[in-house]
What does this fold into?
Amino acid sequence: MLEFRLVQGSLLKKVMEAIKDLVTDANFECSSTGFSLQAMDSSHVALVALLLRSEGFEHYRCDRNLSMGMNLNNMSKMLKCAGNDDIITIKADDGGDIVTFMFESPSQDKISDFEMKLMDISSEQLGIPESEYQSIVRMPAAEFQRICKDLSSIGDTVIISVTKEGVKFSTRGDIGSANIVCRQNTSVDKPEEATVIEMKEPVSLTFALRYMNSFTKATPLSNSVSLSMSSDLPLVVEYKIADMGYLRFYLAPKIEDEEEQS
Amino acid sequence: MLEFRLVQGSLLKKVMEAIKDLVTDANFECSSTGFSLQAMDSSHVALVALLLRSEGFEHYRCDRNLSMGMNLNNMSKMLKCAGNDDIITIKADDGGDIVTFMFESPSQDKISDFEMKLMDISSEQLGIPESEYQSIVRMPAAEFQRICKDLSSIGDTVIISVTKEGVKFSTRGDIGSANIVCRQNTSVDKPEEATVIEMKEPVSLTFALRYMNSFTKATPLSNSVSLSMSSDLPLVVEYKIADMGYLRFYLAPKIEDEEEQS
DNA sequence: ACCAGAGCGA
DNA sequence: TCGCTCTGGT
It folds into this structure.
């Protein structure tokens, strides 16, 4: 038996909005410590990792580890039926092949429950090592989203270069080229809006903007985003989920001079 | 060498939004006194004329006259990457075929530069004589926009008739007909919202609403618009750009009883 | 607080 | 491709 109650149900809605375009089916791994998901995107280029710790739930019960295979599009459809202020409860029986989503309106005047069939999904739960990164940039999530959107009107790939002074996003396309430089900037009133560069070594890596723009669908989850980069590791784009965990996206850099694959 | 710095960058963004649907390619003529553009729309029916005087820029340098041929759609894409509060600087070298747009965020924490290839565009720079008009109407730009939009849901052409009392906009279509009369009205608190008729002789002219609706894309540039009309001259629709110049649209009247051309 | 433009979903 | 919803600007 498994039962989670999440008062801030909109969190779950935002998480689904952020990943459902990238991943169609995935196993939710439930254990006593929390609720997690790992999945490659459909073209097997990017990896999505979600963690929601049990402490973030108002009520969390998980008698034994359970892997729930869900079609994320269908799950997303159901979560769209929850109001933004609704309390969401997720339930499943240990042996069953059904998950139940329950939505309670804040006033308790409307209680909905939705049942969804679970699926068998073969997935290798990859152990992702926590690595040291040559550079980590933290910046306002909205600004990162804007930069990725703007650059994709010019080109297909972005070169992210980190130096002590700041981070530079560059692209080039048929109509011209673009460089956007963000200075380190910690003096801002709100720490949420700071741009912080932790640089051990400068890096300069190239990524497909298409994936970046998918990742930034997670912008509503957090005020800030962090980009962790090393020359021989996948980029990690992380959105912290307040008091609960994170949503991370991993993307391998493009090898330079090989930008012709669509 | 040429370099303009425009603190109110949103002006340039609005200008581009206003003309890019009408004109695809145009030469920007730069001289020591300012920055201007003249171009026919793609169907060679309407003419767009822009003037931005050098005094309106915070910094303006133009060593020698330069004609920069730009694809306005591409330029517009780049300007969309500027924030509304950004300071925009435009730079070009005398011999080069490149123009650079630089955007500085108000906080100076984000600096972007975009490079665009210039094009060779053959254009006859027409000398447009300043004429005397039989009637000039000045009215709130938003009101004019609303009238053109409303009338185009009824008919394809508008008859603008000016008398001492006011200006009448009429149309007729399959579903019926419409007349909108605006009285002269200078008593309003804000002179911006006045409707002023300067009539030497009454006029009544017919225009294609399709073009009118394109022209009113310039509405965000100014609170008021002026319509200058004579029976044997093109209509001039002018939006003043505060302290800098104007954006004008010229459109020949339709000959009556010849409204079948789409 | 209202209106308009952009992005997303059907 | 059209309509709806959401976000941003006035």
Summary: Chain A has a mean pLDDT of 92. The helical segments of chain A are 10-19, 72-80, 141-152, 209-215. Chain A has two domains: 2-117, 135-251.
